[in-house]
């Protein structure tokens, strides 16, 4: 009986070690995953929405870090030296959406690349930059003047507007 108890304790310890190792590799911050758009966790029933800013989105994960809800965006590519500005703004949009829908401003968001994780502070300056970009995008859309800003055929192939785009590669 003692041998069985010791065996179960050993198996439990190994499983706990493996779980911690996988969690560390995932790049997720400490805390409880409360929603995810990937994996086996509870999915968000619908995208987060801000009527005030006319913005909607669904972060890959939302992690509870104490009282804070932290959005996490996962990218499959290897990390650049610094996170791409577009990825930072995407994460900022998720921070704004979490703040609007939960009533609590996240202090930061997480950008997880295949080989590296960045913690991005959600500052007032970053929020202002996001709102300026959203306004510029709306102006371009209203003017019918939103030119393609890349030369990447793979990016074009994955674009949701490819079928109606006159600049598709």
Walkthrough of the structure:
The protein has 169 residues and is of the alpha+beta class. Helix content is 40%, strand content 20%. It contains four helices and seven strands. It has helices at 2-26, 85-102, 124-143, 153-157; strands spanning 32-36, 48-50, 55-57, 61-65, 68-74, 108-112, 117-121.
Extended strand count:
7
Distance between the termini: 69 Å
Report the mean per-residue pLDDT as an integer. Answer: 80
Strand content of the residues, in percent?
Answer: 15-25%
Indicate the overall shape.
Answer: globular
Mind describing the biggest β-sheet?
Answer: 5 strands, mixed
Helical amount among residues, as a percent range? Answer: 40-55%
Order of helices and strands: HEEEEEHEEHH
Sheet/helix structural class: alpha+beta
Q: Record the strand order, biggest sheet.
A: 1-4-5-6-7
Radius of gyration: 20 Å
Count of alpha and pi helical runs: 4
- The residue ranges in which pLDDT falls below 50 over 5 or more consecutive positions are none
Describe this protein with a few key phrases:
five-stranded mixed beta sheet, 4 helices, 169 residues, alpha+beta
